[in-house]
Amino acid sequence: MFGPVPCRLPGGIKTCILRPVACVFTSSSRMAKSKFEYVRNFETDDTCLKNCYIVVRLDGRNFHKFAEQHNFMKPNDDRALGLMTCSARSVMEDLDDIIISYGQSDEFSFVFKRTSNWFKRRASKLMTHVASQFSSSYVFYWRDYFRDQPLLYPPGFDGRVVLYPTNRNLRDYLSWRQADCHVNNLYNTVFWTLVQKGGLTTTQAEDRLKGTLAADKNEILFSEFDINYNKEPLVHRKGTTLIWEKVRTPVVLNAPYSLYRASEVVHYIDTI
Ligand code: DGT
Ligand code: MG
Ligand code: MG
Question: CA–CA separation, 183 vs 188, rounded Å?
Answer without folding.
Answer: 9
